[in-house]
Amino acid sequence: MTGLLATKPRDVSVSRLAEDALWQELALTPKPGLVDQRNSGSHRDMDHALFARSITAIAPWFSRFTALGEEHADKPAAQQLRLLRPMGMACEQAMYAATGGVNTHKGGIFALGLLCFAAGRVPLISAQSLCREVSAICHGLVTRELRARSGAATAGERQFQQFGLTGARGEAESGFATVQAILPHWRRDRQHEMLLRLFAINPDSNLVSRGGMDGLRYVQKYAQTLLAEGWDRAALERMDCALMARNLSPGGSADLLSVAWVLGECGG
Q: Which residue in 119, 123, 159, 252 could disulfide with 204, CB within 3.0 to 4.6 Å?
């Protein structure tokens, strides 16, 4: 990412960008297979109002993640996950309390919480510095929590054992490599294009959970075709119907769109 995005001074509020990112993602309509202002996508237990309550509940935690990062900025990156996790779990509980136990933003809390925490540790805030710090904080995470485990108790562990997919852990440990791949195309007024670009390349664990590898390949190919041949709102609405018919929800890409908003806005 060197040279792609300029460094911003310390007064950039990553916590505010994280909250903005969630509201921007929710407002974006249509979002194929996902909750938006038009419908609930492939979700029967979620709607727009539920997502709004969730964002309201978790937004105050982003500044707390940053403050925690500042408090422990003198400690090595390898020690940081142990410090961050209790606060992350508390934020998740605030989400569940607001949603009646529905998981609306667990992936977003993980990714955006890491970015906010990293923002408290870096001397200069930029997309590059944040990604580098998150990668350092999460170094070895896939090996410890996926590769070293013989069982497959969680969906993430099963997908790693079956397909070698590393999910949200691998994305964080890579310094959000999937998001970095689309940042050269970043435009805040082209969020649908950014989402399609994520659909096209992201090994989305949500899609694999619902539709297996065939479901993942279907969405990736669909997005690649739209990007190559052109698309408009009607095309996105048709994609929405197609994904709902297959009960597919690219929720991992929705989380990464929020990450892209934070990193893109940090870069200018």
A: 252
